[in-house]
Write a structure and sequence with these properties.
By secondary structure, this protein is mainly alpha-helical. The protein has two domains: about 40 residues, no CATH class; about 40 residues, no CATH class. The chain is about 40% helix and about 0% strand. It is built from three helices and no strands.
Protein backbone atom coordinates (compact mmCIF):
# COMPACT_ATOMS: atom_id res chain seq x y z
CA UNK A 1 0.00 0.00 0.00
CA UNK A 2 1.27 3.47 -0.85
CA UNK A 3 0.58 5.23 2.42
CA UNK A 4 1.71 8.61 1.06
CA UNK A 5 -0.90 8.55 -1.72
CA UNK A 6 -3.53 7.30 0.74
CA UNK A 7 -2.69 10.20 3.06
CA UNK A 8 -3.10 12.71 0.24
CA UNK A 9 -6.44 11.10 -0.69
CA UNK A 10 -7.53 11.51 2.94
CA UNK A 11 -6.58 15.21 2.90
CA UNK A 12 -8.55 15.68 -0.34
CA UNK A 13 -11.58 13.97 1.23
CA UNK A 14 -11.42 16.43 4.15
CA UNK A 15 -11.24 19.32 1.69
CA UNK A 16 -14.25 17.99 -0.22
CA UNK A 17 -16.21 17.46 2.98
CA UNK A 18 -15.52 21.03 4.06
CA UNK A 19 -16.33 22.46 0.64
CA UNK A 20 -12.75 23.59 0.09
CA UNK A 21 -11.24 23.40 -3.36
CA UNK A 22 -7.49 23.78 -3.05
CA UNK A 23 -4.61 22.39 -5.00
CA UNK A 24 -1.97 20.58 -3.00
CA UNK A 25 1.63 20.70 -4.11
CA UNK A 26 3.58 17.49 -3.58
CA UNK A 27 7.24 18.42 -3.60
CA UNK A 28 8.57 14.91 -3.27
CA UNK A 29 7.00 11.46 -2.99
CA UNK A 30 8.33 9.61 0.01
CA UNK A 31 7.64 6.29 1.62
CA UNK A 32 6.87 5.92 5.27
CA UNK A 33 6.22 3.15 7.73
CA UNK A 34 2.86 2.34 9.30
CA UNK A 35 4.64 2.05 12.65
CA UNK A 36 4.55 5.87 12.75
CA UNK A 37 0.78 6.04 12.54
CA UNK A 38 -2.19 5.16 10.40
CA UNK A 39 -4.41 7.21 8.15
CA UNK A 40 -7.71 7.63 10.06
CA UNK A 41 -9.86 5.97 7.39
CA UNK A 42 -7.55 2.93 7.33
CA UNK A 43 -7.28 2.34 11.08
CA UNK A 44 -8.16 -1.17 12.20
CA UNK A 45 -11.12 -1.61 14.54
CA UNK A 46 -8.95 -2.35 17.59
CA UNK A 47 -7.17 1.03 17.19
CA UNK A 48 -10.46 2.86 16.82
CA UNK A 49 -11.77 1.25 20.01
CA UNK A 50 -8.53 1.75 21.96
CA UNK A 51 -7.95 5.38 21.00
CA UNK A 52 -11.19 6.60 19.50
CA UNK A 53 -14.44 8.21 20.48
CA UNK A 54 -17.89 6.69 20.07
CA UNK A 55 -20.52 9.36 19.45
CA UNK A 56 -23.87 8.45 20.98
CA UNK A 57 -27.15 10.28 20.40
CA UNK A 58 -28.68 9.43 23.77
CA UNK A 59 -32.47 9.27 23.78
CA UNK A 60 -34.45 10.63 26.72
CA UNK A 61 -34.98 8.08 29.45
CA UNK A 62 -31.89 5.98 30.16
CA UNK A 63 -29.22 7.45 32.40
CA UNK A 64 -25.72 8.27 31.16
CA UNK A 65 -24.46 5.38 33.30
CA UNK A 66 -26.83 2.96 31.56
CA UNK A 67 -25.72 4.12 28.10
CA UNK A 68 -22.05 3.63 29.02
CA UNK A 69 -22.88 0.11 30.25
CA UNK A 70 -24.65 -0.66 26.94
CA UNK A 71 -21.67 0.61 24.92
CA UNK A 72 -19.28 -1.54 26.97
CA UNK A 73 -21.45 -4.59 26.39
CA UNK A 74 -21.98 -3.96 22.66
CA UNK A 75 -18.29 -3.37 21.98
CA UNK A 76 -17.09 -6.03 24.44
CA UNK A 77 -14.71 -3.63 26.20
CA UNK A 78 -13.84 -3.39 29.87
CA UNK A 79 -13.42 0.39 30.04
CA UNK A 80 -15.66 3.18 28.76
CA UNK A 81 -16.86 6.48 30.06
CA UNK A 82 -18.48 9.72 29.04
CA UNK A 83 -17.06 13.20 28.84
CA UNK A 84 -19.82 15.27 30.32
CA UNK A 85 -23.57 15.20 30.33
CA UNK A 86 -25.37 12.90 27.94
CA UNK A 87 -28.69 14.62 28.52
CA UNK A 88 -30.59 15.43 25.32
CA UNK A 89 -31.14 19.00 24.13
CA UNK A 90 -34.47 20.47 25.19
Amino acid sequence: MDITSEGLNFIHSLDNFGGVNRKWLVRRDETTSEKYGTIPTLRPLNQLLDYGVVVVDKPPGPSSHEVVAWVKEMLNVSKAGHGGTLEPYQ
